[in-house]
Amino acid sequence: MAKRVAKVGIEKESGYLYFVDKDGDISCAKMARGAKKGGKPKKVAKVGIEKESGFLYFIDKNGDISSAKMVRGGKKKKATKKKAAKKATKKVVKKAVKKATKKKVVTKKVVKKATKKKVVKKVTKKVVKKVTKKKAKKRK
């Protein structure tokens, strides 16, 4: 699967990401953790390998540069057989005759209107006092 391209033997430090950069050298960058951002990459070893397209280059356990062929896609689909085109046949279309439906007679319910209540005028206190005084005089 993986093939060793160059023997370098670098020692990896935890918390750093090691990779092969554009120039074919080994670089490392501080890994991003949580809200903190990662650091800028810095060169660790100058190797200068030439990269082939279609291959993935990485640093293996021993600290050497290895490459593996890139796997793209997944399971390939089986070729489906083309079905023979069916001849067009004329279908006789019968027109459906609509039956006249009788409409139901809807009777409207008579709604009684609410009658307004007459406003009773309030008798003032003065009038009430006068009436009570008159009754008191009659009793005497």
Automatic annotation (TrEMBL):
Region (Disordered): 70-94, 121-140
Compositional bias of kind Basic residues: 72-94
Protein name: Uncharacterized protein
Biological source species: hydrothermal vent metagenome
High-level lineage: unclassified sequences, metagenomes, ecological metagenomes
